[in-house]
Amino acid sequence: MWDRAAATAMLLPSVVAIAVFVYGFVGWTGYVSLTRWNDVLPNYAWAGLRTYADLFDTFRFRIDLLNTLRFTLAFLAGCLGVGFTLAVLLDRGLRGEAIFRTIFLAPLAISFIVTGVVWRWLLNPGSAQLGSVGINLLLERAHLGALRTGWYTDPRIGILAVALAALWQLSGYTMALYLAGLRSVPDELREAARVDGAGEWQVYRRILMPLLQPITLSAVIILGHISLKIFDLVVAMTGSGPGFSSDVPAYFMFDTTFRGNHFAQGAAIAEVLLVLVALLTVPYLIYSTRAEAGR
Amino acid sequence: MTRVLRRSLIASAVAVAVGLGSLGALQAAPAGKLEIFSWWTAGGEAEALNAVFGIYHARYPAVQIVNATVAGGAGTNAKAVLKTRMLGGDPPDSFQVHAGHELIDTWVRNGSMEPLTGLFKAEGWTTAMPRGLLDILSYKGDIWSVPVNIHRANVLWYNKKIFADAHLAPPATLDEFFKDADALKAKGIVPFALGDKEGWEAGHAFEAVLIAALGADGYRGLWTGTTPWTGPKVTAALEIFKRMLAYANTDHAALTWDGAGEYIMGGKGAMMIMGDWANGWFTSKTFNEYGWAPPPGNMGVYDALSDSFGLPKKVRDRENVMAWLRVLGSREGQQAFNPLKGSICARTDCSPSVFGAYQRWAMTQWTTDAIVPSVIHGAAASEGWATDYKDAIALFVTSRDTAATQQALAKACVNAGVCK
């Protein structure tokens, strides 16, 4: 009896705080997005879904959605590919594994702002006066000058250059997830497969990869919601880019709300982002809650 | 209530105890604090602000000046802080704001400011400042802020040596511009240097093209709803800008405006359109081979932007602020501020002798030209409209899609509530 009361008392503050500061403000933002508040002072006249209709008709938002899709695909595929490969290589018991593991994981400790600034320099296209710099200079020195590009200043690359920086930062984290997964697979399973005549490739393809599926799923969820909400990396690295080729919804939201005073439009973008993230995470949450309940 | 009562009791008790003898002096000169809010933190501009503070301090030594600056982002951060303070009922005594619609649409229309028409008349500023500027400062028949400086947005900066070597004169018309550009391009020189990394620079250059295509009245009408954005002249302006972009450096998306200036300095680029802060930049790089002229088709039109200060309602000490505004608008104040800031006086009676060669040229133009407001720099339209305009032109540089851009520009006018 007392235990239960104490537990409730302990939980209550954070429940109230979350109810107000998360769900309360989600609701408030949703309400603002349905008003005509597009000036400094609030205007709560009802606008219905008009702001949303206008939003999907706005060229910048359409470009942003496409950019988000390109960024998410490139970033997810890259992180999963690089992370899995690194994990497999480390799992083979090479010497100095701990050192490599630390090196690969270290970028995770850096903020997106620092990553953005560093990669802005690395991928600087250089100029007519100063010549090439950064990675373009490396390519030039390696006699691969033909491969030099404008990176984030080339509208065809745009957001993919940002994805490259994000990939560098988070592939180590994906590696750690996979490595933990690989280590949790009992050796007996691998040995049994080998006894049955499976080659190394088949062990990975038929035994390890299926067993790692839950890891892949959580990696997709975690990385996916990061990529949908990406903001600081874009701000530090490129800004909107030429023709908005590296613009993202979160940056547009900031720009239109705090520079353009379009509060309703900014709120609408925030709600669209929320729905996108929910589409990704809610099925997973339902699935994992059911799985826990089933136990 | 009781707290207020107690405070005033204490205050009067202190006044009686301390100042019985000097009560006459206290009434004559303003005292207390004056908080001035701005984003002038860099080199010349901070010194310019301090010069005005110096004059104020000499006249009103009892007032303590609080210099509240918020650095960064061309005022973006400062504007965000200002919004919080204004909406929270804690306005600074006076704040820096671009004269014109950035002030009017953000703060005047919702009744946060007091009109200053009386001050302008009492100080004789309605005759000391040009009519075109007063129009920019006015809304519903009243004047709302005191402009401390004037920058010119439409200036064509060029490399004198390149033009002399090619036996060309800086282009006065668009036809001449394209003729010169072809000749320069054939010599391997970038005719039109551009750096549009930050997003606003292309929209800035396009203002000059709009002026060339529409004339001063037509351009002004774009922002008041009398010139249609859907008309053939706007189409023509976009087509001209598209042609100009074909003569720009290919790495423009990686450069800020001073990166484009490097092209001019290095003798690799011939011309660029930028505001007159470029003058200070060239000077700071000890580069002397640059010349200036109105951009092609901009003869006789002065595309202006101005930093100004107003009087918010509910300030703590109104008299101190009025005194501040009187200093800002005075000949002495403007002459102290502008040579350091690299701008010219909003008044037409400043002495040219304290200014450099470029400013002396601009001061002559200021008294004779038709004055139009810059949109990118807050004078012509609300912040929301200016943002939409900036976005549409930034996309145009990459897409070069005239029809879609014109549609976006027209829609921005409708969204701003000016066009139907």
Please outline the helices and strands.
The complex is a heterodimer of chains A (295) and B (420).
Chain A: H1 2-33, H2 50-57, H3 59-91, H4 97-105, H5 112-122, H6 134-141, H7 159-184, H8 187-195, H9 200-211, H10 213-228, H11 232-237, H12 249-258, H13 263-294
Helix pairs in contact in A: 1-13, 3-7, 3-10, 4-7, 5-7, 7-10, 8-9, 10-13, 12-13
Chain B: H1 2-19, H2 23-28, E1 32-38, H3 43-59, E2 63-69, H4 76-87, E3 94-98, H5 101-108, H6 117-123, H7 125-128, H8 131-137, E4 138-139, E5 142-143, E6 146-147, E7 151-152, E8 155-159, H9 160-165, H10 174-186, E9 190-192, H11 201-224, H12 232-245, H13 257-265, E10 269-274, H14 277-284, E11 290-293, E12 301-305, E13 307-309, H15 318-329, H16 331-341, H17 357-368, E14 370-373, H18 383-399, H19 402-415
Parallel strand pairs in B: 1-2, 1-3, 9-10, 12-14
Antiparallel strand pairs in B: 3-13, 4-5, 6-13, 7-12, 8-10, 8-11
Describe the fold and architecture.
- The complex is a heterodimer of chains A (295) and B (420).
- Chain A has 295 residues and is mainly alpha-helical.
- Chain A has one domain (62-294): Orthogonal Bundle (MetI-like fold).
- Chain A has 13 helices and no strands.
- Chain A has helices at residues 2-33, 50-57, 59-91, 97-105, 112-122, 134-141, 159-184, 187-195, 200-211, 213-228, 232-237, 249-258, 263-294.
- Chain B is of the alpha/beta class.
- Chain B folds into two domains: 28-151 and 307-364, 3-Layer(aba) Sandwich (D-Maltodextrin-Binding Protein, domain 2); 152-304 and 374-415, D-Maltodextrin-Binding Protein, domain 2, CATH 3.40.190.10.
- In chain B, 52% of the residues lie in helices and 14% in strands.
- Chain B is built from 19 helices and 14 strands.
- Chain B has a five-stranded mixed β-sheet, sandwiched between helices.
- Chain B is globular.
- Classes of the chains: A mainly alpha (295), B alpha/beta (420).
- The A-B interface holds A 38-41, 59-60, 63, 124-129, 150, 153-155, 239-245, 255-256, 258-262 and B 76, 79-80, 83, 86-87, 105-107, 109-110, 190, 196-199, 249, 251, 253-255, 259, 262-263, 266, 268, 382-384, 386-388, 391-392, 394-395, 397-399, 404, 408, 415.
